[in-house]
Amino acid sequence: AKELGRNTYQFFSAEMNARALEKLNLETSLRQALKRGELFLVYQPQLDLASGRITGVEALARWRHPEKGLIPPEKFIPIAEETGLILPLGEWVLRTACAQARAWQAAGVPGLRIAVNVSARQFNHPEFLETVERILQETGLDPNLLELELTESIVMENVQDAIMTLTDLKVRNIHLAIDDFGTGYSSLTYLKHFPIDRIKIAQEFVRDIPNDADDAAIVEAILAMAGSLNLEVIAEGVERKDQLGFLHQRRCKEMQGYYFARPMPAEQLAEIFSRGLAR
Ligand code: C2E
Ligand code: CA
Ligand code: CA
Fold this sequence. Notes:
The protein has 11 helices and 9 strands. The chain has an 8-stranded mixed β-barrel with strand order 1-2-4-5-6-7-8-9, surrounded by 5 helices. It is of the alpha/beta class. It has helices spanning 2-36, 73-83, 86-106, 120-123, 128-139, 152-157, 159-171, 203-206, 213-228, 241-249, 266-275; strands at residues 39-48, 53-65, 69-71, 113-117, 146-151, 175-181, 198-201, 232-235, 254-255. The structure holds ligand C2E and calcium ion (2 copies). One calcium ion (CA) binds at residues 58, 117, 149, 179. This is Diguanylate cyclase/phosphodiesterase with PAS/PAC sensor(S). Residues 23-277 form the EAL domain. It comes from Desulfuromonas versatilis.
């Protein structure tokens, strides 16, 4: 038993070393990736069901590593957050997304909103507001067409400061959304204290509707309360017709998910804008 115990310990510590090393490697190469232009954005359409129109797109970061290939954001965003690299990375995402949205607007796509994910470290940085303003100025994008996505945990961390920052953004006409809604610890009642425009129902609750009674009840409650608080709602991760049916019946107007379109490069989306989504 002693033998086993020691071996087990060695096994874990070797694994932990390998992990720490992998992380360190990733950090180093992520730093280079930013400079070398290995990062790019894909865009996932958000649909208004009644009109069938694409009302917005969410920008999602991708990293094409020269040797390792495509690295998913779940792998590099947390490392970027831990190391502070999320600040230059996030700024790059914001600038690239705003420039792309401006280009689509110039190409004749009307009123298309661009949604950009903001991490805790970005949001809490004292120069966040200035950075956003500068990027809007540089790219010439109408602030109205920018939507910032923040998670519940970001805004709940320090409610008073969050309300101030959100208000600063709101008075500049920037759209604000709460991402992954329902996964945090907060109740809907806190929402009325925040100047937000919409909530995104987390994929985790959408996945098993209509069959899972608990999830169905949660989604129903979110939709009902959002309605009475006059908040816009979008459901994320819609993959099937039965999910769409359930959401539609309960007056969820906007949706995002593989059922409609996967995240895609800007060139591919441009084709869809000129042709329309085949659904
Ligand atoms: P998120 O903000 O919740 O983004 C939605 C994720 O769900 C995306 O994964 C998207 O590709 C995926 N998705 C969309 N529709 C469906 C569907 O119908 N079914 C399923 N199974 N998945 C769907 P992705 O692109 O891998 O991004 C993962 C997460 O990484 C994002 O979750 C976000 O938290 C983070 N992330 C991505 N890009 C950025 C970024 O530029 N900045 C920051 N701070 N975080 C980012
Ligand atoms: Ca998001
Ligand atoms: Ca989300």
